Amino acid sequence: MTMALPHSRTRELPLGRRIVERPEVGAAIGVIVLWVFFAIIGGSDGFLTTRGIASYLNIAAQVGIVGTTVTLLLIAGEFDLSIGSMVGFSGMIIALGTTQAGMPLWLALLCALAFAVLYGYAVGMLVVRWNIPSFIVTLAGLFLLRGATIGFSRSIAQQPYIGGVKNAIGTDPLQYLFAGKLWESLDVGFLWWIGLVIVGAIVLTKTKFGNWIFAVGGSPSAARASGIPVARVKIILFIAVSVSGVLLAAIQVLSLGSADSFRGQGKEFEAAITAVIGGTSLSGGTGSIIGTAIGALTLGIVRQGLFFAGVDYDWYQAILGLLLLLAVIINQFARRNVSKS
Amino acid sequence: MATPIIEARSVSRYFGTVVALKDISIAVHAGEVVCLLGDNGAGKSTLIKILSGLERPDEGTLAIDGQPVNFRSPRDAFARGIATVYQDLAVLPQMSISRNFMLGMEPIRKFGPFRFFDEAKAGAIAREELAKIGITVNHLKQKVGTMSGGERQSLAIARAEYRGARLLILDEPTSALGVNEAAIVLRHVIRARARGLGVVFITHNVHHALPIGDRFVILNRGRVAGTFARAEMDEAALNRHMGGGAEFEALQRDLVALADQLKTGATVH
What we know:
heterodimer, A: mainly alpha, ABC transporter involved in vitamin B12 uptake, BtuC, 4 strands, globular, B: alpha/beta, Rossmann fold, 2 domains, four-stranded antiparallel β-sheet, 9 helices, about 35% helix
């Protein structure tokens, strides 16, 4: 240290403190503890086999894909409850397009993508221009899209389920971009997830737009006063969330060869849970993409850990609720130092 | 006298039946601190909203460098060098000092087709600009929430200046601060004046206005109750004008009488 500085009342925290106060660290410690726990109780039953590892990575990838974009939106101070329904609806567009309308796969995907962009834009406009809380707009979207998915499926195919996608698209090489295995039973979706996490983390922490996301969620008035296009930032993020829903839908429909009206149900909450476990605040202004990735991994490990340990699936949700509560309490303590003063 | 940076000419503003401002004229020159004083409800906020482009006058005009202007938004005003620092500061406590400082004008570093936020450059600019106003920051990655109120206010002012402001409108910058914290901000205002900026300093604290003001404009019930040069002013005079003169003295007498009454145990109505 040099001389005492007249106006600087700030001090650098010890390295240890700085690390512990990062929200991702708590989540990372948590996931390691959970992994060791399940490795001990379920290891001999397959949790540690390549099939076991792939199974929880696949689950983490699916929730992580939407979790990544939902995290960006949460940091910007908005919520999307309709992402799960979006997965169901766009899956239905892809399945109906290829099996009923005879579209080539690329066209069906493009239709789903176009719908997602329009939908995200519409939600964003309602939120920023008409000042309707995103919670309400996307709650309406949750029911609207889910209902429409079931309605379209039943009126076109007389059932809430559209199969035969694989027959319809045949050997279209485009499908291997979304379906298929990377290695053993690890899905291609895993690569999408990792890619999205890397891009999301770079955008959030290393670009101007990322700075704007934090500012918009931290204080919209301060952001506006600094000349940041608050409306545009939010609309772009609503679109990004919807588009990530299409990505997940494409992965699911092309892997399973079918669309189910009820697919994606609950993903809106799982995405939010992964974000909160990873240290993202629901009130906006703080959060981490890496944290959300750890949160997604936590979900995958708990779900498959319970499976391999022979615990009934019913307990998964109860444990998820407990984990969420625990994560919020820990984050509250970690954040206290910053918000004070 | 030189052309003022900003000038309000006979500005009036009505809210329905309420006369918020009536026939206000005020001019601020480069290198001058004009203190805008007045009790709550005197019209200070409405006047600065008009000067900063947030509201339009119903009557009268604004002029920048002698040219009549019509601001449609704060962005318009800012483009002409008028920057307003509001009480809520426009800083984000959860964001680092350098990111806060460069918010909305982030320096960019290109890498092939990609454009990244230039953290090093942002830090260097923030450090340099804050050093100019006498704030030494050890750790630019530190969150603004860890700075004191006076430092935060100074950061907001320094940022407005860095963005090219020629005229700073400071809305009660010291009212939420303690004595030492307020001193940091007041020192900063004096330095800004020395660099040739015009400053509109809004306050209802006479002790903060007196040492830095070149001119004092006192508002009372939406009208200019008086404009005084520094030489004509002392604390008693300023207090008299601000509180509405005679009204304030009457209030003082009432309060003294009430206190005496209570002391002697008389019935209180």
